[in-house]
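Supplementary Note 3. Input sequence used for the single-chain structure prediction.
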Amino acid sequence: MHGDVTRLLGECREGGKDALDRVLPLVYEELRTLAERSLRRESPGHTLQATALVNEAWLRLVDQREQNWENRSHFLAIAATAMRRILVNHARDRRALKRGGDRQRETLFEAAALFEERADDLLALDEALDKLARVDDTKRQIVELRFFAGLSAEETARVLDVSTRTVERGWRLAKAWLRREVAGSADAGTNR
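The predicted structure, written as discrete structure tokens, is reproduced below.
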């Protein structure tokens, strides 16, 4: 099955119109698992469902102008990044509602408003990940795959084509770097 996905992704790169339609059934369960793992880290009252997250990520993936996916692992890594972006955008929308944006819709999201602190944490993490990408993009990918996609160290190593030990070391270093970075941004926010 993994070989089929890689072959179909190759056909997509070469302009095969129907190849992408044949990819979804082969990766749907893996995408759903990524989505469920990502959502488990969200607040209990989160308004997104795994199916909606998969569908939105899929739409973003197929809407890309260039689809240069090398193989199944590369595709899943990009899907995890897309899911992260969707969750961050969702958190930004919730934060905007909390601060008075779109007052008419606010009552529809009252339950989500209870968990706004979590949205702020996610936004701070997103900013820190962008900074980490400029310093060490592999560590950023490790965080996305471990935290947002919920992959194990072994699964992350397979996706990134590195050793499990490299992932474990990168995970430890990235967590420490992110903790320091997010704490620094929180301190800067309280000093304003």
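The chain is about 75% helix and 0% strand. Residues 2-190 form one domain.
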